[in-house]
Amino acid sequence: MRGQSGSHLRFLGRLDRYVVAHFIGSYGTALFLVVGLYLVLDMANNAGQYLRSGDEGTAASGGDLLHYYLMQIPFLFLQVAPFVTLLAGLFTVNRLLKKNEVTAVLASGVSARRMLMPIFAIGCMLSLGMFMLRETLVETLADQRDRLSWKLTEGDQPRVYSDVVVHDLLGSLVFLEQFWPGDEEGSAPFAEGVVAIVAEADDYVRIDAERATWDGTGWNLQNGQRQVLGNMAGTEDVSTLLGFDLHPELALTYRRARAEPLELSFAEVERLVRREPDDTAFRTLWHYHLTFPLANLILLLVGLPMLFNYERGGGSERLVVGGILCIFYFAMDFVFRNLGINGGLSPLLAAWAPVLAFGSLGLVLFEGMRS
């Protein structure tokens, strides 16, 4: 590399491969630390309760417990991925600084910005990969994970959710007092205490039923009664729920939107936004699922250049600086996100303000690095 400037280095040459190798090793270490710490703490607090749950003879097995935690790892990763990326970048640069390899690279005419280029390229790929992982795995694994969670906490009791409210594209809504997704093989989803307000032409129709059972294409009603709102002429019997798009999976999506909104996929949030375009929580989540993966790159842009200001300090000082930056970012992200979800800020500002603020700071620090 002697006598070559950074602009003439071949991308993915020896220097880039060396930096990438260190980053991949550091990423594995950081991921193991973060995920392992969560699993150990959660198991210490809950494993005993999980294995004792349910009635006598119906407690979950150790295999169920292991399966649940394996299913939980992708969801945990989606929450902490930017933090893991920053830690990996800090570990990598700290090692290069500690072994005086940065000084050697700078002396050969290669700028610090060029040396860090492969790390930032990986940060971009991790941002895209995080978005794709959410879309490809969450919808597939979420319900399976929820089934295991229910079994761990409730034993062999049938899974049931209370007070599920579902909206459709035409402004209609259905309230399910109790909803059973039908987990057992061959069991159909059903609900009890059904109240539907359905838009029909210029009127709204109320449908009440003691029970609704999914037959694969629609809902069959038990003791269903239909009445046009505002019409005192009485009610008529109905046997099916017509004029409303209510698939059992949509009911589960609405249930998860209330219980664990950050675990929804972007596609799920988009479906909810189409049904309730004025809901600030769904609109905030729509933007948030686009901006949060960008934190993989933004935290690197802020954290890595700052390490060069502490080149003469100890490794612990450098890592503390990066950790403080991460805390500030996630604190700002948390506050703005909740303000957006609760209607205190516009969804656009709530989701994009942390990205723009720290991204701008990162670009300034990146351009100010000595070369």
List keywords for this structure.
disordered N terminus, 10 helices, six-stranded antiparallel sheet, 2 domains, single chain, alpha+beta, 371 residues, 14% strand
What does this entry look like structurally?
The chain folds into two domains: 6-154 and 286-367, no CATH class; 161-259, no CATH class. The longest helix is centred in the middle third of the chain and has 43 residues, at 112-154. A hairpin with a 7-residue loop joins β5 (219-228) and β6 (236-240). The protein is an alpha+beta fold and 371 residues long. It has ten helices and six strands, in the order ααααββββββαααααα.
Relative strand content:
5-15%
Q: Which percent range fits the helix content?
A: 55-70%
Radius of gyration: 26 Å
User: Order of SSEs, N→C?
Assistant: HHHHEEEEEEHHHHHH
Count helical runs: 10
Determine the mean pLDDT.
85
Please specify the SSE layout and strand pairing:
Elements: H1 14-52, H2 62-98, H3 101-107, H4 112-154, E1 161-167, E2 173-180, E3 190-200, E4 203-214, E5 219-228, E6 236-240, H5 248-259, H6 266-275, H7 280-291, H8 295-307, H9 315-341, H10 347-367
Antiparallel strand pairs: 1-2, 2-3, 3-4, 4-5, 5-6
